[in-house]
Structures are given as C-alpha cells and as structure tokens.
Amino acid sequence: MRYTVGSQEITAVRGAALAIEQGDFISIVGHSGSGKTTLLSLIGGIIRPTGGQVLYEGADICAMDDDGLSHYRNEQIGFMFQFASLLPRLTVRENLLLPAVFRPRQAEPADAVSRKAAELLRMVGLEDKINAYPAQLSGGQQRRVAIARAFMNRPALILADEPTGDLDEATEQEMMDFFTAMNRTEGTTFVMVTHNTDLACRTKRRLIMQQGALREE
Question: Which are the contacts of 191, defined by CB distance < 8 A and separation ≥ 6?
Fold first, then answer.
C-alpha cells in the first residue's frame, strides 16, 4: 500500500501476507508508523490497496463496489478505532443501536436489538449509563461503549486498533477478559493492534510489523 505525500511516495504496507482463520485471536505489535493501522484499514475495506488482494471467504473485497464494501463492513466486521468516536448528540443506547440501523430490516427484530445493546453494556460494566450522553462519561467509559458497539451486529471479525489504550490497568484486563470470552464462546475472530506486550502475550498468535512487513513472533 503506497501513499503519495507531496513529491514523496511512502510505502505503508509491503508484502504483508496474513492468513486469518475463523476463531483466531491475533495481536500485532510494532512501532508507530510501521503500517499496523493501514493493515487493519485494508482488511476492513476502509481503504483500497494499490497492489495485491484482500480475500474474505475466497472473495476479493477489492473487487467490490462501494455498496458491496459497505455491506461487508456492516455485516462482517466490528471496528474498534484508536478513538471512541461516539456521536455526542446520541445517548449511549442510541450510539450502540447505530450499526443496526444500516442492517437489512429483516435481519433482527427491534426489541432483540435493544436487548442486545443492554446486554453488551452489562458485559462492559456500563448498564447504568444506557441513557447518558458521551459528555457525561469519562474517557475510559466512552472507550467501553465503543467496545460494546463493535459487537452489535455480531461480526465474524473484530479489527481492534489499540482498543484499550485509554483504560486503566484493571479495566484493561477486564476488557481483555471480555475479548477472550467472546473469542472462546462466540467464535469471534480478533485482529488486535497493541503496544502492550503483556496483552499481546495473551493472544493465540503474535505478529510483529516493521516498516510495512509482517512476521510471526
């Protein structure tokens, strides 16, 4: 994956071959600027590669049109970005329900979606904040809402970019326990970028990214 900045061409990801199996829990560590976030964006269909392929269940997502990519992101992928990115004018409940709005109407009854939102908030310890607005939450609480939101559409694959970066140590461990439980009981696949080597050691597979290239630890 190459970018052009002014007159300079920058290669963010080079020759990165990664096969992800259902039920994997993969961590990727590396210095800032090594290409980790770009790699997640390629897997998630947020950006298109300048070369190579991104295959999901045998289909090249790079060949999809914009509608196809939107469907792929909404139905198959759960995103945890570096920032919580909650909409300030929506309550916690409404922020969680937002991903479900873009699903086909027949996908799940409205009452089931509401129960799912409440259950996810309970699982991240914020059931009492369901009617609060983001400005009424701490940064760590906003992060936990964003974590819960990523699971709303029951994604097959979670792409997590420093998902616990602004949590205290105890809450960070609680969220990692939550991820591990979802991986084990729901079969959710995780690809997690982190600077925390202790968290990386808890995952099934550990990779290192250096100057756009991947290698197994």
Answer: 20, 24, 26, 28, 40, 43, 157, 158, 159, 160
pTM of this prediction exceeds 0.90: yes
Classify the C-alpha dihedral 97-100-102-107 as positive or negative. negative
Q: How far is CA 195 from CA 34, 68, 137, 165, 207, in A?
A: 12, 33, 25, 9, 12
Cα 18 from chain centre: 17
Q: Is residue 15 within 8 Å of 213, Cβ to Cβ? A: yes
Q: What is the pLDDT of residues 112-159, one digit of tens each?
A: 999 999 999 999 999 999 999 999 999 999 999 999 999 999 999 999
Rounded to an integer, what distance in angstroms lies between the CA atom of residue 175 and that of residue 181? 10
**Domains of the chain listed by start with CATH number:** 2-216 (3.40.50.300)
One-letter amino acid of 164: T
Helix, strand, or coil (residue 206): strand
Q: Dihedral of CA 208/82/24/199: which sign?
A: positive
| Cβ pair 51, 14 in contact under 8 A | no
Token representation of residue 119: 């259950």
